[in-house]
Fold these 2 entries.
Entry 1:
Amino acid sequence: METEKRLNAEQKEKLVKLGRDILNQFRNLQNPDIKLPIRTLSNIYFDEKNKLIRLGSKVSHRTYLNVAHTRKFMQTLLVAAECKKIIEQNVTISIRDLYYALKHTIPGTKENTFEEQEESDPVIEDLEAALNTLREQLHLKADRKGYLAGNIIIHDSGDEIDASKMGSSGWAIPSNVEPDVIKFSNLEADYILVIEKDAVWQRLNEDKFWKKEKCIIITGKGQPDRGTRRVVNRLHKEFNLPVYVLTDADPWGYYIYSVIKQGSINLSFLSDRLGTPEAKFVGLTTQDVEKFGIARNVTIKLNQGDVKRTNELLKYVWFKPKEWQTELKHMLSKGYKLELEALSSKGIKFITEKYLPEKISKKDFLP
């Protein structure tokens, strides 16, 4: 409780300072200015030492008297003011709720403060970066997306949850998984397996793969949300567990892996919390077609978008290791990709009884 009060006070003070600075600029007849880190590719770099995507030092200025900035300036202060209010009320709302709470028509005009949620979401991220905070600490949450199963006890706001007894559904990973809210204990696992697809996660859960192989299985149901990535990051750091990632053999699956491993360009200011540089890629790869005798008729022809994206990945610093260059070029040369479900052509339980156990025991990973 004391920790919660302290965090709330800290976040409120950050918001109050932002408002006070703007007010003082008005009083001094200055053009009100909000300084924001630039969150684009031009201000992103790859930290070779720590193997994370980092935000650079460049900043932009969102000013009230610049016509191009005025709307965004107004939106930024609206979001900041609403966050202060919900912190004071000690309630948490969804980022969707925030959008609707702030959307209204400006008096005397026909213009709305926000037209779509696509306008309010980036403003939240701007505030996170500018105030060096998390949206969860501003009492905002996103829809939960990830799921977890395995031998681990989760302590959530005073409740104990046994993730080995969650049936077919697993533990739904919430948006806020920071240590002041979520704690872990009684973990019995040799590694963490992160699975791109929910359907494949369900196959592994039904087969009790986590029990037979002594691991924690997690899915982000596609591109993992922040809560899922933070759980992976915490379990790795707090229990010193290896992290293995299982995705489709296509450029989109490979990029999902890279986001889990070293963070994303858009959220580069959170890479320390969301990236797990020690993660390894266990599959699927196009080279597995020959390794495991997968029928060619379950492969999918690369389309123009796939080819374009693969060529982009080839240029990324984090895909420069020779093993990745070999795989990406092999995909282009063969002209096909595969979904994880293609392994079912070898038998429904092939992935749990043969593919994963063999790859993991042989440490057949990509870096």
Entry 2:
Amino acid sequence: MSTDIEKAHPEHGELTPDSPVPDPGVEEHVPRFTDVDQAAADRAYRQIVGMLALVPVLVIGFLVVYFAVPRDAELMVFGANLKMQNTLLGLTAGLAALLIGVSAIQWARVLMSDEEIVGERHGAASPPEARERVLADLETGIEGSSIRRRRLIGSGMAGALGLMVLPAVVSLADLGPWPTPAVRAETIEKTIWAEGVHLVNDVTYRRLKADEIEVGQLVNAEPETLQDLEGTAYQQAKAKAAIIIVRMDPNSIRIPESRQDWQVNGILCYSKICTHVGCPISLWEQQTHHLLCPCHQSTFDLGNSGVVVFGPAARSLPQLPITTDADGYLVARSDFTVPVGPSFFERDSSKDFVEGDR
């Protein structure tokens, strides 16, 4: 076998155990058209600069579309109704990114150095002169890129990449409103519960009478006003306002003085949303009065104002103040006094119930 290889490649000498495969060498360099024709190189240069020059125009177009085109405006394309703003935003940002990519590829293909370079393999540890060699290689790369002779390409590429940050920054506004105290108070810290809103079964939307709920029973419920909402508003309100209603023997539970009027003969109402990461909970242990979250086993004592007795949850389960109307149906006295759901950085936890509160 080795004899055949030596015959096929006699110019590379005999094979040794250290070099089982002959060195193929560097192929003969074939100049590109732009290497021998200065006019062709100049045309390529102008094409690249032209593509980069279009990027700022497209970025400005993106910003104009974002702020000027109504979000509900529609565009008919081949018989399909498309959202005009989304379509134009995608076209302007997409074309800008495409032009940057195409110009970079064209720059490398026709203007950067096309000479083949052989690099010797070295050990994992860098020798003392590694820094000098890296700097020398970097200098070779800069020289081969022609960026010193054609500075407008470098400036255009830097400007184009810098401007592409603007569409990304502007698009961040769609992540939601800035969470100022006022915005939080009207959004994530507020539900549709209010004074006089009836508690209804979350499936049948039937109003719940206090004398129909038995000791030990748990009922999943929602506010009656939820039926007035539709679409996204309905889903958001339902997720925050979901509750559980439990009835316990008043003599077997602890009700703080500050919450004596929050319950009706041992009927208490709590948020259904775990304060750990927001899982819905309704695993009810009648004997212990504990409510267990199925996601991470946080356990709340509903017989003691919903305090955490086990698991990763750090806050008590929010309790909804309730009473009855003239006909004996359960109604809310107000909204929750603390935000429901999992914690967030800006949340004020000073009003959460803790063990020992009166």
